[in-house]
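User: I've been trying to design a sequence by hand for this structure and keep getting stuck. Would you show me what you'd pick, starting by listing the structure so we're on the same page?

Assistant: Good idea, let's start from the same input. This is the structure you sent:
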């Protein structure tokens, strides 16, 4: 699995492109709020001959879905999400206004639902969908076992974890999710989070202060 990250918007959110050997591509968590950010993503796609075929949201907090409307307008894509994120996605413009961010376009409705324990195909790639609630009710991990890589949204960061003070969050549930869904992967698995640098399962098992005592 080939993967490229971009950091967008005022929340410094990580947007990802992933693709197979034929260039079949998924846009994951497009945080591209501003036109210049959208052009950065589009230029990379064009320069590398990628074929955007899917739009995936690990969860639907505003900073991860700012670019959903752009992805539909540009590539005809609608998002795949976990069913428990539908309400959050629908409230995007109101949530953005609450944060003082005006003019945010509503996201298109889901193209389909990411179901826990299922696999999602992006060209020749098979991504395992792991449900990991706690940061958001419908947070999912997208795990590509063959290459030892996982996109983990805001579930876990390098030596930190996702916040749990937003509606639907639960610290206890998040810790349980990390133990079941993240630490069950091989230690060499590289984790690509929604904010900050990438890390590995093994590093977090030993050095993450939120996990050592739990």
């Amino acid at each position: 699995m080939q993967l490229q990250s971009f950091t967008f918007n005022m929340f410094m959110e990580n947007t990802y492109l992933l693709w197979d050997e034929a260039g079949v591509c998924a846009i994951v968590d497009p945080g591209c709020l501003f036109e210049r950010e959208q052009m950065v993503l589009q230029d990379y796609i064009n320069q590398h001959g990628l074929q955007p075929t899917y739009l995936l949201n690990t969860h639907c907090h505003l900073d991860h879905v700012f670019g959903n409307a752009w992805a539909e307008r540009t590539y005809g894509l609608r998002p795949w999400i976990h069913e428990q994120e539908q309400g959050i996605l629908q409230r995007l413009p109101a949530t953005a206004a609450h944060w003082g961010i005006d003019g945010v376009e509503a996201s298109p409705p889901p193209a389909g639902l990411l179901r826990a324990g299922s696999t999602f195909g992006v060209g020749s790639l098979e991504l395992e969908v792991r449900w990991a609630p706690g940061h958001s009710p419908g947070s999912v991990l997208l795990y590509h076992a063959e290459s030892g890589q996982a996109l983990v949204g805001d579930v876990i960061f390098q030596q930190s974890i996702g916040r749990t003070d937003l509606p639907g969050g639960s610290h206890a549930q998040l810790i349980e999710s990390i133990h079941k869904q993240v630490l069950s992967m091989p230690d060499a698995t590289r984790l690509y989070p929604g904010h900050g640098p990438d890390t590995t399962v093994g590093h977090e098992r030993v050095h993450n202060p939120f996990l050592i005592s739990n």
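That's my pick for every position. To get oriented when you compare it with your attempt: Helices lie at 35-47, 62-65, 68-75, 86-90, 92-98, 171-182, 201-207, 209-212. The chain has one domain: 2-212.
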